[in-house]
Design brief:
144 residues; Porin
Length: 144
């Protein structure tokens, strides 16, 4: 008789890196992930967006549930919100948003995590964005 062991998917205690994507314009973010318990973590992203006529800085926080697929592959889903400021020529201001998150990631044997995710964001300022924006991004993070 053989014994089979099942191991829970492990999430690194910390991961720090970048998240680069497109949401009606190019944007980059400094991204930090913090382990909470078993398959849960927090993600905080601070970045900028350069779209057609608007430049914006924003901070987004997400609570994520991470599930194993196979080997180093995982998928995750999350929800959260954020705040920011924007410059649209004659219109400057602040905004708030709610966000979801759906992605896939690969955890290498070295302390590198690569991800591809889709973050729908609903903004609450007519001068910045009052509809649903879809932010698709590639992430590279160092795990420690």
């Amino acid at each position: 008789m053989g014994a089979t062991t099942l191991s829970a998917q492990s999430i690194s205690k910390n991961a720090l890196g970048i998240r680069v994507g497109d949401n009606d314009g190019f944007g980059g973010e400094i991204s930090y992930q913090r382990y909470l318990k078993e398959n849960n973590r927090l993600e905080f992203d601070l970045g900028w967006r350069d779209s057609h006529n608007v430049d914006a800085f924003k901070l987004v926080g997400l609570y994520q549930w991470v599930m194993p697929i196979d080997g180093g592959f995982h998928w995750y889903v999350g929800a959260g919100g954020g705040v920011g400021s924007f410059d649209a020529g004659d219109n400057d201001g602040a905004f708030a948003l709610v966000a979801g998150d759906l992605g896939i990631e690969y955890d290498f044997d070295i302390p590198l995590l690569i991800s591809l995710d889709m973050r729908p964001e609903l903004g609450f300022n007519d001068n910045y964005s009052d509809d649903l924006d879809l932010d698709i991004a590639l992430g590279l993070r160092y795990q420690f």
